[in-house]
């Protein structure tokens, strides 16, 4: 498994960093971390898909993101701090999954012995800031139809067929998609119905099947 964020770390130091990580496996439905727990490690996703969930003001849980192989979470745990940060969200395995877990203490030791490892933290934080900025701009200024199109296109990548013709099965409910795009479920359903009428998607029980990936990608780029 290759992680793009590790490209900035020199080869030998990258090998040492990966050697210092523990491989963990999870079954479907298992929590990798819980919201509010002490954050003491970075996770590099090696296999499977994970849901990032956070509590809402009314006490419910909303899905914020879906992570696939090659992604990561928990980078704030690597920041030097007198008081360890806490997890801002829970992460749950949507299917059998595997991560490489790098503890904050191991990272500190590696950083002291191998200065090139320091670049990793900068890259991780910069990527996260860029991602959050993009999502904020999208939520404020992009219409719901386009947000749904972009979300589905991103999920095609997560489920391993972003450049395929289709079909791609995305095993998320319409409520999950509504959480991801920040829209009401009935409104998201209307967008999906329009896509279904155009032959771009097919709505299944507990899933959305992208039938025509090129058409969806074209809509997402508009």
Characterize the quaternary organization of these chains. Answer: single chain
Which spans have pLDDT < 50 for at least 5 consecutive residues? none
Shape: elongated
Number of helices: 7
Number of beta strands: 11
Strand content: 15-25%
Structure in words:
- The protein has helices at 11-19, 104-113, 118-141, 144-158, 174-181, 185-197, 213-221, and strands at residues 22-26, 31-33, 41-47, 50-55, 61-67, 72-73, 90-93, 97-103, 168-170, 201-204, 207-210.
- With 222 residues, it is α+β, with helices and mostly antiparallel strands.
- Helix 4 crosses helix 5 (174-181), helix 4 (144-158) crosses helix 7 and helix 5 (174-181) crosses helix 6 (185-197).
- The longest helix is centred in the middle third of the chain and has 24 residues, at 118-141.
- The chain is elongated.
How would you summarize what this structure contains?
This protein has 222 residues and is an alpha+beta fold.
Layout: helices, strands, pairs:
Layout (H helix, E strand, L loop, with lengths): L10 H9 L2 E5 L4 E3 L7 E7 L2 E6 L5 E7 L4 E2 L16 E4 L3 E7 H10 L4 H24 L2 H15 L9 E3 L3 H8 L3 H13 L3 E4 L2 E4 L2 H9 L1
């Amino acid at each position: 498994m290759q992680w793009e964020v590790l490209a900035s770390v020199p080869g030998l130091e990258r090998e040492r960093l990966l050697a210092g990580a523990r491989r963990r496996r999870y079954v479907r439905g298992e929590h990798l971390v819980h919201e509010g727990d002490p954050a003491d490690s970075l996770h590099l996703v090696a296999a499977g898909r994970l849901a990032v969930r956070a509590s809402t003001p009314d006490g419910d849980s909303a899905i914020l993101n879906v992570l696939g192989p090659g992604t990561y979470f928990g980078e704030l745990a690597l920041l030097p701090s007198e008081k360890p940060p806490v997890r801002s969200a829970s992460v749950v395995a949507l299917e059998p999954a595997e991560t490489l877990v790098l503890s904050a203490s191991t990272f500190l030791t590696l950083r002291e012995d191998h200065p090139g490892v320091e670049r990793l933290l900068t890259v991780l934080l910069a990527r996260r800031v860029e991602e959050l900025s993009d999502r904020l701009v999208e939520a404020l200024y992009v219409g719901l139809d386009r947000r749904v199109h972009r979300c589905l296109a991103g999920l095609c990548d997560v489920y391993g067929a972003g450049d395929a013709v289709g079909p791609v099965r995305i095993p998320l409910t319409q409520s999950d998609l509504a959480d991801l795009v920040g829209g009401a479920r009935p409104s998201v359903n209307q967008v999906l119905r329009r896509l279904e009428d155009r032959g771009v998607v097919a709505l299944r029980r507990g899933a959305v099947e992208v039938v025509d990936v090129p058409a969806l990608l074209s809509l997402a780029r508009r």
